[in-house]
Design goal:
The chain is α/β, with parallel strands linked by helices. The protein folds into 3 domains: 102 residues, Rossmann fold, CATH 3.40.50; 166 residues, P-loop containing nucleotide triphosphate hydrolases (Rossmann fold), CATH 3.40.50.300; 59 residues, Homeodomain-like (Arc Repressor Mutant, subunit A), CATH 1.10.10. It is built from 19 helices and 14 strands. The two termini are 26 Å apart.
Length: 463
Amino acid sequence: MKQIYVVEDDPKIRANLRFLLRENDFEVQVMARAEEALSALDEAVPDLVLLDVRLPEMSGLDLVRRLVDESRLPPTIIISGEASISETVDALRLGVLDFVEKPFSVERLLQSIRTTLENSELRREVASLRARLEDGTGEPRILGGSAAMRELLDRIEKAAVTEARILIRGESGTGKELVADALHRASSRRDGPFIKINCAAIPAHLIEDELFGHVKGAFTDARQAKPGLFEEAHGGTLFLDEIGDMDVALQARLLRVLEDGKVRRIGDTRDREVDVRVVAATHADLEDSVAEGGFREDLYFRLAHLPLVVPPLRSRGDDIQLLFHHYLEHFCKLHRCRPKRVGGDVLRLLADYPWPGNVRELRNLCERLVVFGGDPITPDQLPSAIAQGRISAPETGLVRLEDRPTLELKEFRRRCETEYIESILQRTRWNVAAAARVLGLRRSYLHEKMNQLGLSRPEPEID
């Protein structure tokens, strides 16, 4: 049973709150003065404090300041009918989670209490997971407490202590690089370098030079010798991301390194021995690529000693709220914003959405909400795909053709235009006049364009 402290000097309101909260299965302790609350907090920390601003002697705001200074402010909601705007702003900046103005309805108060308790519980879970998964620098690592993630973390722990090569598989945006990093940190090579390269992000003719290096004079611009990434990763781990996009000719050179542990720089006549553990990752189906001749079968078996599959976010329903609150907190700190409150309907919509862009899409959404969203975050601030339960393209700014069927240029333009106009409408809270000014269009033309593209403001949720 959740415990709530009520700090209120009006005896009638105090009695009503005690009755109301007990009727809703809360354990309640009532107090008339801030000093009483301080004494009670020395004995035990409640799940929530309902605090009036106007109290005899020490005010509610003074109590909040003192508890913040002592780093022991519990989840707190201010209830007051006399607080000034400046006092309200000060309270929220100090960490008060909500402000309920008197006279308040029973529904408004209970909704605020339930939302605050739920968000506080999620923050505690995030903090607990972060404490278990952070490294010495305090950088957050893999977050998730769902059954799928517990299984993955268990497999990472078992695979990390071996010297076997590992192939990480998973959809785009699931966090394959984080898994590779976790494998390195938990291995006996943790004190060695962790070197990574994205095989899809570098032109094919440059990857060979990146991996193997070159000697001076090997080609026109080779004014000095350069070691490759295999040499740089000596004694550590080399992470080959999107290995499925590697050119077939280069796959043969990679296979030789894996077989004899030696690399030869471009233009060199001698081999160099390297001690490197290779971890590879792909979002592609390598078995199909092997069958089609796009990926060497012998290389596939060399890489996939221990396969690890990173689950998509849609199969990690229990983790969505944890990740959402974690990234909101992260971006609020990064962009120096005060913490954002979140309505219950928002969390329900997030849980129902299939997340085609996985964790990357969720992370991008959180940054967008922190920068452009209001407080509290409400369903109308979400992309229409989430608010209406539709599947959208991954949050990359453009439709990724490699993840979708080949499109005619006209259809590609239409999708990109739809995504961009919708993003501007979301930023302006669906104010068409404001969006038209941002886009440099006439309002009437934007209305016409919205009709053509099927864009309409999401309907508000009705309880």
